[in-house]
Design goal:
By secondary structure, the chain is α/β, with parallel strands linked by helices. The protein has 2 domains: 193 residues, 3-Layer(aba) Sandwich (Rossmann fold); 102 residues, Orthogonal Bundle (Arc Repressor Mutant, subunit A). Helices cover 45% and strands 12% of the residues. It is built from 13 helices and 11 strands. A 7-stranded mixed sheet has the order 5-2-1-6-7-11-10. It has a two-stranded antiparallel ribbon with strand order 3-4. β6, α2 and β7 form a beta-alpha-beta unit. 38% of the residues are buried.
């Protein structure tokens, strides 16, 4: 009877808890009587815990009274974790449990609890796109891959935000019980067995911006106002009275990317906005955003977001084109 332990705490995101648990609970419908996942919610707080949405959740036991090793140990996430102070006792428990478990990991920014326990040092990991920068800054030894929906590094598994815990759980279920069981569970939950693309398609912007009055900031604002035009290094360098070589060096130093990289990211962001808010054909969007043609837009979109422009429109458009 494989055991799944899921650690929760006051302020936990309820979907981080219910999503993964429902994957394994639904699997039991297909696996019985051959196998049966035993699901346990472990609390880092006494009594009923209030989730971030106000829902009350009563764990099966407190972590300090849980010595049983789990086959799978998962840590849920929640808005409170980013600035939460370290808990030495909880960290020690997580280290013992992770060592004993066949597999351990986190959902969303539950990665912060694993990181504070030293369980992510030198490991490949991911987390919610909105917390990735803070996680990397606080724990620079993590080999963070912020665009991944989920990933595995040995015994460690981590996932992106909220519903990505379902993606991770389905993948683990497929490894354990087979693809057919996982597919049946995905159908039952009305979710994709494997969604296309990475986290970038869900974040508001791919493009980081500098202060408006700085050299880089002035160039960035100009680029955004002239995306449909030909933007060369020489043209941008002339804006700040610098040679193309010096300008490219200064821009790369201050923006942490080349001018060409910034322009491409800005054009993708502009195209995303148009795909979300308009029913214009892809050819028109490509020209307005400075791509050579619709094919060029498709290739860059796939490279940057890991999904096609049409799939993006189907997923996020508020005004889908008429059939």
């Amino acid at each position: 009877m494989p055991t799944v332990h899921l650690l929760v705490f006051p302020g936990v995101q309820s979907l981080d808890v219910s999503g993964p648990l429902d994957v394994f609970a639904e699997a039991n419908r297909f696996l019985l009587p051959q196998a049966h996942y035993r699901l346990r919610v472990i609390g880092a707080g006494d009594g009923a815990l209030e989730c971030s949405n106000g829902m009350l959740l009563t764990p099966h036991s407190h972590y300090s009274r849980t010595d049983e090793a789990a086959d799978l140990l998962l840590v849920a996430g929640g808005p409170v974790l980013v600035k939460q102070a370290p808990d030495d006792a909880l960290g020690a428990w997580l280290r013992r449990q992770a060592q004993a478990a066949k597999c351990y990991g986190s959902i969303c920014n539950g990665a912060f609890l694993l990181a504070r326990a030293g369980l992510l040092d030198g490991k490949r990991a991911t987390t919610h796109w909105d917390d990735a920068a803070a996680l990397q800054q606080q724990f620079p030894h993590i080999r963070l891959e912020p665009d991944r929906i989920w990933l595995r590094d040995g015994k460690l598994v981590t996932s992106a935000g909220v519903t990505a815990g379902i993606d991770l759980s389905l993948a683990l279920l497929a490894e354990e019980a087979g693809a057919e069981v996982a597919l049946n569970v995905a159908k039952r939950l009305v979710v994709f067995m494997q969604r296309s693309g990475g986290q970038s398609q869900f974040s508001p912007y791919l493009t980081p911006y500098a202060e408006e009055g700085s050299l880089v900031g002035r160039v960035q604002q100009y680029v955004l106002a002239h995306l449909g035009e030909k933007l060369t290094v020489g043209r941008l360098a002339a804006l700040v009275a610098a040679s193309p070589r010096n300008f490219a060096r200064m821009f790369a130093r201050d923006a942490q990317m080349t001018p060409a990289e910034f322009i491409e990211r800005a054009r993708v962001d502009a195209a995303r906005a148009m795909l979300e808010r308009s029913a214009l054909p892809l050819k028109s969007i490509a020209i307005d955003c400075g791509f050579r043609d619709a094919g060029h837009l498709r290739r860059v979109f796939q490279k940057r977001l890991g999904t096609s422009a049409q799939q993006y429109r189907d997923s996020f458009s508020a005004n889908p084109p008429a059939a």
